[in-house]
Amino acid sequence: MKILFVEKNLRGDKLGVCCLSAVLKRAGHEVDLVQDDLDDADAYLSAHPVDVVMFSVMSDEADWVSKRNRELKAKHRFRSAVGGPHPTFVPSWGTEDDAIDYVVQGPGESVVRSIVDGTAERLTRGSLLGQFEYVPPDRSIIYKYDALGKARMKRFIACRYCLFSCTHCFNNAFKRLYPDQKVSFSYRPEPELLMRELIEVRERYGLELAFFNDDDFAGDPEWLTRFCQLLLDSGTGIKICASVRATSLTEERVAMVARAGVVIVNFAEESADPVTQQLLRRGPVTNEVVFRAVRWCEDAGIMVRLQNMIGLPVADPLGDALTTFEFNKKCRPTDSSATIYQPLPGTELWAYCIKNGFMDADTKPAGFFDRTVLRIKNAEEINRFGKYWYWAVKEQWPLEILQERLRVPISDEQMAAMTQALWADRRKNLYGM
Ligand code: SF4
Q: pTM value?
């Protein structure tokens, strides 16, 4: 059978579809992927008829997927399947659309063959990794695009799912979907398998910086020690950028990962206000813990990117954001980012926002670098703050200067240009690109 993944525009290495491709190819199917904005899926399907079209759907792309699937189905004969975060947490979005043939909740590896064979239920739920054999992702379907295949930095996953339950995160909702598979909530492939994947990617496509933006790279000390040793033994010189929960680090662990090649660590601070931290259920990830972990990284020569969230559903969202800003200035990370909180359907905080009048039940989330979709005080200042944040922390803007700038409207074009500028600066300073 021939299977085509249709993406609007890949924003990075989307490894979920690569994992599905690997499973399908092992079963003898042909798999390809098109980015509709670049290649036009319509033209592709005219030239290469396929049996099944698959979409991996983020919440901010759900409307586009519904529309594009309908347009393509009006012209071509195929069965369509949707999976990914949006159908997982809002399955009715897919099941109520008669142009969609299959809706997958959760990881699709265990069910994707039955979809292609036509034996799956219309709404089907995949098992968690750990319940079946891990197959390394088939990156060829996305690395045929040079912007990804020739990139110095490529993405990897060391850890699937997460043991914690922050209210804004899908992991909590995920646990409710899988009460019978709790043992798999912190699945990691064997370090040897992951190391082999890194080496293969390096040999085939080139790799200087491996970016692990999974939930907590350092969450399993024994796994971490084995993986660091393998990195050292490999002599490849591959550098690592890893997302880590600050509570998972000790001074010794920071020194160990630095020796093994970790050069950048991402920490999520989210909010520095203790009351907001409780709303987000950040548990032991306190300001003191984050501050201490940043100092350890600094001492070990590791660059730190601190990730924050503004526009939260609290009584004074601007005050909350300013508190977090001041904490970031004090912390002096190499890089600081602030995304605009987006209510992800199915999460606890999404339900809280509806219940407390911050939005309607049918409000759709936007992108993390877009605008707030909530009814909150100072919404426009929050949107502008998202654009100024990077520079304001980096240049240690005094509070009064920042507040003055936040009061002045800026156009959409200026906002877009500011986003481009900060990414260009970040690529150069943090990732050396
Ligand atoms: S620690 Fe991170 S991945 Fe885990 S639940 Fe919280 S936000 Fe989600």
A: 0.91
- Cβ distance 210 to 238 under 8 Å? yes
- Local structure of 104: helix, strand or coil: strand
Q: Is 56:84 a contact under the CB 8 Å cutoff?
A: yes
CA distance 367 to 320: 21
Which helix (H) or strand (E) is 329 found in, with range?
Answer: helix 317-331
The answer for residues whose C-beta is within 8 angstroms of residue 239's C-beta and 6 or more apart is 208, 209, 210, 261, 262, 263
pLDDT tens digit at each of 433 positions of the chain:
999 999 999 989 999 999 999 999 999 999 999 999 999 999 999 999 999 999 999 988 999 999 999 999 999 999 999 999 999 999 999 999 999 999 999 999 999 999 999 999 999 999 988 777 888 999 999 999 999 999 999 999 998 878 888 999 988 888 888 888 877 777 899 999 999 999 999 999 999 999 998 889 999 999 999 999 999 999 999 999 999 999 999 999 999 999 999 999 999 999 999 999 999 999 999 999 999 999 999 999 999 999 999 999 999 999 999 999 999 999 999 999 999 999 998 899 999 999 999 999 999 999 888 899 999 999 999 999 999 999 999 999 999 999 999 999 999 888 888 888 988 998 888 887 6
Q: What is the dihedral of CA 268, 273, 279, 282, to 10 degrees?
A: 40
| Closest CA to ligand 1's atom 2 | 215
- 355-to-92, 358, 372 alpha-carbon distances in Å: 20, 8, 17
Looking at ligand 1, which atom is closest to the CA of residue 168?
7
Residues near ligand 1 with C-beta < 6 Å?
A: 162, 164-166, 169, 171, 215, 245
Cα of 327 vs centre of ligand 1, distance in Å, is 20
